[in-house]
Design brief:
Radius of gyration: 20 Å
Structural class: alpha/beta
Number of helices: 10
Helix content: 40-55%
Largest sheet: 5 strands, parallel
Order of helices and strands: EHHEHEHEHHHEHHH
Strand order of the largest sheet: 2-1-3-4-5
Number of strands: 5
Length: 236
């Protein structure tokens, strides 16, 4: 199940395309918690992948989504009460755990309305959804889903009910700090700048020349690039 035979050794010099990949149950958190978390991460300079499409019933995850998981340094999994109801979410988790074990990604589980014990043992609402899955999917797939939930549930994560007194805004701030810490960044400076940057001086001079510093003319600066990347990073 390893991604194209890649190993931790082959990823040692790999440049991640995304800092964070968000895995979540859209019906539960797309327009509230996950949206607020995504915005906070992006505002902190964290390049974050969030899939906003809804997978039609019965279809498999696209190759583009699987590739996005492979290219993300920190998968953040938002476990909500109905996370296990989605075959798509469970298949995402299979890929995420596979990448963790083969390429050394760091998974950050977020328990949002789901008890970590229910995730590990597939009890509570997770038991109800797995009872329905048994009627639709083969035993091997069910077994695989249970195994990755058990592994993810045993990872050190963040439980909303046990942190920040349940206040989501404070909870999100702590998550952002945790992510920035894992990326070796500061909360006040989300953009990572190398200690000894190379080839920036000539570019800076070019920008200064275009700005016409000292000129009385009015200049308009337009910044463009990939969606999800803060303007400060696009300038580089």
């Amino acid at each position: 199940m390893a991604a194209k035979g890649l190993t931790k050794a082959s990823y040692s010099g790999f440049r991640w395309k995304h800092n964070v990949f968000l895995s979540f149950r859209g019906e539960d958190t797309r327009k509230n918690f996950t949206d607020h978390l995504y915005t906070a991460l992006v505002n902190a300079g964290v390049v974050t992948y969030r899939d906003d499409s809804e997978l039609p019933r019965g279809e498999n995850i696209s190759s583009e989504l699987l590739k996005a998981i492979e290219e993300s340094k920190i998968p953040v999994v938002v476990f909500s009460k109905s996370y296990a109801s989605s075959r798509w979410c469970l298949d995402e988790l299979v890929k995420i755990i596979d990448c963790k074990n083969t390429t050394g990604q760091t998974i950050l589980p977020i328990f949002y309305g789901a008890d970590p014990s229910d995730v590990r043992k597939q009890t509570g609402s997770f038991a109800e959804y797995f009872a329905k899955h048994k009627a639709r999917f083969e035993d091997e797939k069910i077994k695989m889903w249970r195994e990755v939930l058990f592994e993810a549930g045993n990872l050190s994560g963040w439980d909303l009910q046990n942190m920040s007194n349940g206040y989501e805004s404070r909870f999100i701030q702590k998550i952002v700090r945790e992510v920035l810490g894992k990326l070796n960044r500061n909360i006040h400076n989300g953009l990572h700048v190398a200690t000894h940057p190379v080839a920036l001086e000539s570019r800076a001079k070019g920008v200064m020349k275009l700005l016409g510093i000292g000129s009385e003319e009015v200049r308009i600066v337009g910044i463009y690039g990939m969606s999800g990347i803060p303007p400060s990073q696009k300038l580089l």
